[in-house]
Design brief:
Blueprint (H helix, E strand, L loop, with lengths): L13 E5 H16 L4 E5 L6 H9 L4 E4 L2 H9 L4 E4 L6 H11 L3 E6 L2 H13 L4 E7 L12 H10 L5 E8 L10 H24 L6 E4 L5 H4 L7 E4 L21 E12 L2 E4 L14 E2 L6 E5 L4 E4 L11 E5 L3 H5 L4 E6 L2 E7 L8
Parallel strand pairs: 1-16, 2-3, 2-9, 3-4, 4-5, 5-6, 6-7, 7-8, 8-9
Antiparallel strand pairs: 1-10, 10-11, 10-15, 11-14, 12-15, 13-14, 16-17
């Protein structure tokens, strides 16, 4: 499919980005942080595209996050320097890759284990480097991270003794609160958790250890963490595209730029259409996708390559017609596709590879 072709000529299933909406989302987030002490660190795990990351940085983002080392390598190879890898790297071969990557960038990583820290320090010293690290705290998700308070302070004290590491600060993920649509309730819940982070920052500083970076937040809490004392950067990703899950949260004024275009391949009865987009085209771990601009239509069943949608019998849809689906989770849906069709004024303006797709190593 060539640039300039009409949107409805695209072969399906296809991943589409409304460029006007995406650019508006980037501008809105940038405008918010212009008047804040904290800065945006855009999370590239959402779009997995160096081109979009460059657009976010050009709009004012201080850097990007990557969830995996493979994603970070793609971004550094595209000329992006300021990167935080927000998942622990523990395998010796990956630590070697990380340190080598840091030679060409300011690539930092989170850690929570002293043995890993020692190995990372040793590897960095062998290469004449100091690897930048942030200590991850677990304040909610029972995932990775040290326990807030004294355990984190003791861990920080230990890693600052390691000559191959450069302690840069603390990071936590208070979570997007997807189940709390009310803004004030979400704010109250986030403040309780952010208080644990703030208290830990103060304890570390009381030991005479500088904490330059305090990284937190998400799309769901960007305008909460972004105004919280001590937070220096906010890790927001999904805002660039949005999805039907985030759209339910009060206080997020971003548009849904991402859709999966599908074709009606069957209408066996008047109240049901079947489209050519199933599990392999859009994910459903956060719920079924929404059917865009078709009143009363409801996506109710997936199989590998088919999607079942209930419609009003009077709905004028025939085999061969196109429908747009708004994913419930933009990040995982993106990872199913090789490229984006960038759409403006109903036509293809650009086709962008999703260069970090599948880079989970």
């Amino acid at each position: 499919m060539v640039v300039g072709a009409a949107r409805l000529e695209i072969e399906t299933p296809a991943l589409l980005v409304d460029l006007d909406v995406m650019e508006s989302n980037i501008a809105k987030m940038s405008d918010y942080f212009k008047s804040r002490r904290s800065k945006l660190r855009a999370h590239a795990k959402t779009h997995k595209s160096p081109l979009i990351a460059h657009k976010q940085i050009a709009a004012g983002a201080g850097g990007i996050c990557c969830q995996k080392l493979g994603e970070a390598e793609v971004m550094v190879n595209s000329g992006i320097r300021d990167i935080l890898i927000t998942s622990e790297i523990v395998e010796p071969a990956k630590i070697e890759r990380l340190v080598r990557l840091s030679r060409y960038s300011d690539a930092k990583v989170v850690i929570d284990n002293i043995e890993v820290a020692r190995k990372m320090s040793e590897t960095a010293q062998k290469q004449g480097m100091k690897q930048g690290v942030l200590v991850e705290l677990d304040i909610r998700n029972k995932r990775c991270g040290t326990v807030p308070g004294k355990p984190t302070v003791e861990f920080v004290k230990e890693i600052t003794k390691l000559k191959g590491l450069n302690f840069r600060g603390l990071m936590e993920y208070e979570g997007p609160f997807l189940d709390v649509p009310d803004f004030q309730q979400r704010r109250a819940g986030a403040h309780k958790l952010l208080g644990l982070l703030r208290g830990t920052v103060e304890l570390v500083r009381n030991e005479g250890i500088p904490v330059d970076t305090v990284s937190a937040g998400s799309t769901g809490t960007y305008n909460i963490a972004g105004e919280y004392p001590e937070i220096t950067e906010v890790e927001a990703g999904s805002y660039v595209f949005m999805d039907s899950t985030y759209q339910k949260l009060e206080g997020l004024n971003f548009g849904c730029a991402l859709t999966v275009l599908a074709t009606v391949i069957s209408r066996p009865v008047p109240e049901r259409i079947i489209v050519d987009a199933g599990w392999k085209a859009t994910t459903q771990e956060l719920g079924m996708p929404l059917v865009k601009n078709i009143e009363g239509a409801r996506f109710y069943h997936f199989s590998e390559e088919h999607g079942s949608i209930s419609v009003d019998p009077s709905t004028k849809l025939s085999v061969g017609d196109k429908v747009a689906l708004i994913p419930s989770h933009c990040c995982t849906t993106v990872n199913l596709h090789d490229f984006y069709y960038g759409i403006r004024n109903g036509h293809i303006e650009a086709v962008w590879p999703i260069s970090a797709r599948g880079k989970f190593l």
